[in-house]
Design a protein that fits this description.
With 454 residues, this protein is α/β, with parallel strands linked by helices. The chain starts with 8 loop residues before the first strand and ends with a helix. 33% of the residues lie in helices and 24% in strands. It has helices at 17-28, 70-78, 116-121, 127-141, 149-153, 157-163, 168-183, 192-203, 207-210, 219-233, 279-282, 334-338, 356-359, 363-377, 434-453; strands at 9-13, 32-37, 48-50, 57-59, 64-66, 85-87, 92-97, 100-105, 212-215, 237-240, 244-250, 253-259, 264-266, 269-272, 301-311, 320-323, 330-333, 346-353, 386-399, 419-421. A seven-stranded mixed sheet has the order 8-7-16-17-18-15-19. A five-stranded parallel sheet has the order 10-2-1-14-20, with helices on one face. A three-stranded antiparallel sheet has the order 5-9-6, with no helix packed on it. It is globular, with a radius of gyration of 23 Å.
């Protein structure tokens, strides 16, 4: 049987983390790569911009990663951006309910049991619930999720937890505290497969994997700028501010893509790192001939709302705090985390996951709700003056890890001989995260390289 041979000319569609990861991996292997991004900057959904009123670099949303995000961390090393991040020496999260503080923390020398002391001391659940939580965590730790992935994917994580003796109080006070920000959805909606994956890979693998990390600079300074320098050093080509309008396909192969300015970009291999809902727009020619039109058609989006508030004084001492039974889920101390001199006072960022409630709400009403809630949660905010407030809605922030979503996530190779797919929504085994995006690019690059070495 003859094997299709490809040259090393690659065109990447999309300048998010998935496309950039694929590009960098292929550049390292000697490929000639051109990347096309419709926006004037790189980074996809992980970017920052300069606020015209203050001149401050503002992230489009708070992005957190964990020590288990090995693909993402390796990628930061590759593009010389690792020096711009901070990773906790050990997990430590303050969790507040009705002014009562508790925390989830790691004791590294206990190894697998590194979370046990914090679970025993956790004040937001009863002693009975603590014992049942430990029971469920042990069951998750020893579960081979891949062996029964279809069963787990067809069941909600909430139902799985209820079958395994978890009370609604413990689900809301602990389990959903982890699931909501990582999967950007309520625990009742996500699949057991993805919920269990989050705990196995994040909290239960070990103390190093459970530690939280974040950028100490704006996201564009961390990712977009670092990657532009790396790509330039590898002689890759980046085309910004131009979108793909049509694609020429002959004999089940893409020959070229046409951009908004009418230019034609030829290539031998193409990687689409576009969002899953763009395929019907970009590949209309395939509608009657190829199943590619159905790529991602059973996937849907979940929104995130971010609220940036600048106060005239310090109102929060910690780097980050999670809240239970509050409109506010997480608050991040950007002044402390990024260690930069901004406006006098303090810059805090509130992150609301699964934010359908606020998707169509006016920004002024959102501001009123959350500045009032901050006064309830932080006594110092009662006397503080809000100097600036920015509301950022990301209505298509992440794909939803609903039951059944696993089978809707495609692998890198497609029915078109020289087209490969990357994206955090593809079959990475991870949720919609920076780690999943970077891993998808690595998988696409590996698939391409394997075709050349067959």
């Amino acid at each position: 049987m003859s094997t299709t041979r490809y040259s090393k000319e690659v065109v990447v569609l999309g300048g998010g983390l998935a496309g950039l990861s694929a590009m960098c991996n292929l550049l390292d292997k000697g490929y000639k790569v051109t990347l096309i991004e419709k926006r004037p900057f790189l980074g996809g959904r992980a970017f920052s911009y300069i606020d015209k009123e203050t001149g401050i670099e503002v992230d489009n949303g708070q992005h957190i990663f964990m020590g288990c995000c090995t693909y993402f961390i390796e990628f930061l090393h590759k593009v010389n951006a690792y020096k711009k991040i901070f990773i906790q020496e050990k997990l430590n999260i303050k969790i507040v309910r009705n002014s009562r503080e508790s925390s989830i923390f790691s004791v590294p020398w206990l190894g697998f049991f590194h979370l046990l002391p914090s679970l025993i001391a956790y004040s937001h659940v009863t002693f009975k619930d603590k014992m049942l939580i430990i029971y469920a965590l042990l069951k998750i730790k020893n579960l081979d999720r891949e062996a029964i992935k279809l069963d787990l994917d067809n069941e909600s994580f909430y139902n799985w937890l209820k079958r395994n003796k978890q009370s609604d109080t413990s689900i809301q006070s602990l389990w959903n505290l982890v699931v909501l920000p990582t999967l950007n959805d309520n625990i009742q909606n996500v699949s057991a497969y993805m919920g269990i994956m989050v705990f196995q890979e994040g909290l239960l693998k070990g103390p190093k994997e459970a530690a939280l990390g974040y950028s100490t600079v704006g996201l564009t300074s961390l990712l977009g700028d670092s990657m532009q320098e790396y790509i330039k050093s590898k002689r890759g080509e980046i085309i910004l501010g131009k979108a793909v309008t049509s694609i020429e396909i002959v004999d089940n192969r893409i020959n070229s893509v046409v951009l908004t300015d009418g230019s034609n970009i030829n290539g031998k291999i193409f990687i689409s790192a576009l969002p899953f809902d763009k395929y019907k727009e970009i590949f209309p020619i395939l509608s009657n001939n190829y199943p590619l039109k159905s790529v991602g058609e059973r996937l849907t989006y979940s929104p995130i709302v971010g609220i940036h508030i600048w106060y005239d004084r310090e109102v929060m001492e910690d780097d980050l705090i999670a809240f239970l039974d509050s409109e506010i889920q997480w608050v991040f101390n950007k002044s402390s985390m990024q260690k930069i001199q901004e406006l006098s006072g303090q810059h805090l960022s509130i992150s609301i996951s699964g934010a359908w409630k606020y998707a169509n709400m006016s920004k002024q009403k959102i501001q009123d709700i959350f500045t009032m809630e901050m006064k309830q949660l932080f006594p110092k905010a009662q006397q503080a003056i809000v100097k600036r407030c920015i509301i950022i809605k990301q209505l298509q922030a992440t794909f939803r890890s609903l039951p059944g979503a696993y089978s809707a996530r495609p692998k890198p190779n497609t029915e078109i001989l020289n087209l490969f797919i990357a994206g955090d929504w593809t079959a990475t085994g991870w949720p919609s995260t920076m780690e999943g995006a970077v891993k998808s690019g690595v998988l696409a690059a590996k698939e391409i390289n394997s075709k050349l070495t067959e």
